What does this fold into?
Amino acid sequence: MNLNATILGQAIAFVLFVLFCMKYVWPPIINAIEKRQKEIADGLAFAENAKKDLELAHVNSTEQINKAKLQAQVIIEQANKRKSHILEEAKAEAEQQRSQILAQTEIEIEAQHQRCYEELRKKIAVLAVMGAQKIIEQSIDEKVNSDIIDQLVAEL
It folds into this structure.
């Protein structure tokens, strides 16, 4: 009986131990396990959301970079068009100034030519009068000389 009593005592002690554990030990352990499982699940969900956010941010940044590249390309094209336009305007203005300078130079050359031509005509007339004076060997007064020179210039 002693052995049965001992086994029975141990079985009761074991049942009491199991009941005690089920009442006082298991609930906090189960709660800790469930809490840890929830934290792990929340962490995994957060990591998944963060991964999705990262992918979305990557897509958005790629789109923004592409838009920026397109904008830069448009700006460069506009700048090139503006440069061409400015160059064309500068060429046209330079051509206009060149034409004006040439026209002004031609006018000045023509005026200088006329002055030289008139001077030459007067010198020829003076030489002609001097030659005529020597031929005639008579003295003509200055008024007559001047009239003759003007008349010769007009005829030339």
User: Anything to note?
Assistant: The mean pLDDT is 85.
